[in-house]
Amino acid sequence: MSAELLKLSGLQMRFGGLLAVDGVDFDVRPNEVFAIIGPNGAGKTTVFNCVGGFYKPSGGEIVLDGQPITGLPSHLVARRGLVRTFQNIRLFRQLTVVENLLVAQHMRVHSGFLQGLFTTAAYRRAERTALERAAHWLDRMGLTAVANREAGTLSYGHQRRLEIARCMITEPRLLMLDEPAAGLNPQEKIELQHLVDALRREFGISVLLIEHDMSLVMGVSDRILVMEHGRPIMIGKPDEVRNDPRVIKAYLGEE
Fold first, then answer.
1. Which residues belong to any copy of the ABC transporter domain (predicted)?
2. How many CA atoms lie within 13 A of 228 on its CB side?
3. Residues 98 and 160 in one domain
4. For the residues of 134-166, what is the DSSP string, one character each?
């Protein structure tokens, strides 16, 4: 593995005549939590969508573990070990919690249509393994008691945990979290911070985070990129970012 798990160089994104992102450079290192912050309209989500394969950048390069992924569609990016959550939770709301975790494993299950049709031994093994993995993540995320409930009936905090579990069950190398604290109460935000710390520690993953809740960002991040008007202002450790006059100006303005 390269020293940089993810590297962006000169990223640009145009929408017609609007240059929404211009000249964004940063890297995410193995086992690091890297956050992107900035006022509304700073370009954070656009960067996320370029990295995750939802937008094809207008310029620049995105490299994952030494291999270019610039412009690859999202499903191919996911196969390379980069998965994401969304600010507006996207679950299969009519499926049960455990069914959501089974669907998430479709890229890992190497059993074909004919195997399923004739219920071969290989198909049964793959099905059993998928159920065991789902059970593990239900337990790890504290969702076992609601395993057979429809996902859309869960509390917001449980839905967020299910969304993260659905990502983690694919064994990613880089987990992208898009405003994971949105809609959570103060206790759930504390639990989320502990969860991110634990996932990084236990599974050795890297985390790329967009978040408006500054207490969460400062508490969980190793480094932070600050953006304004589509351009980077600075990259630094939480204490450096917290006290930087450029960051204070971007958030609070000038007299």
1. 6-254
2. 11
3. yes
4. HHHHHHHTT-GGGTTSBGGGS-HHHHHHHHHHH
| pLDDT band per the 50, 70, 90 thresholds, residue 9 | very high
Count of the separate structural domains present in the chain? 2
Query: What is the pTM for the complete model shown?
Result: 0.88
Q: Which residues pair with 33 in a beta bridge?
A: 207
Q: Please write the tens of the pLDDT for every residue from 197-232.
A: 999 999 999 999 999 999 999 999 999 999 999 999
Q: How is residue 213 written in tokens?
A: 């809740």
Using an 8 Å Cβ cutoff, are 15 and 183 in contact?
no
The helix (H) or strand (E) run that includes residue 103 is helix 97-103
Instruction: Round to whole Å and give the CA distance between 28 and 3.
Output: 9
160-188 per-position pLDDT tens digit: 999 999 999 999 999 999 999 988 899 99
33, 206 contact by CB (below 8 A) = yes
Which residues, 6 or more positions from 135, have their beta carbon under 8 angstroms from its beta carbon? Answer: 98, 144
Give the residue numbers spanning the domain of 208.
Answer: 1-81+173-255
Residue 124 lies in a domain: yes
> Within this chain, do residues 209 and 193 fall inside the same structural domain, yes or no?
yes
Cβ atoms < 10 Å from Cβ of 7: 19
**Cα R_g (the chain), whole angstroms:** 19
Q: Going edge to edge, which strands form the sheet with 59-64?
A: 18-28, 6-15, 59-64, 67-68
Give dist(CA 211, CA 101) in Å, integer.
25
128 and 238 fall within a common domain: no
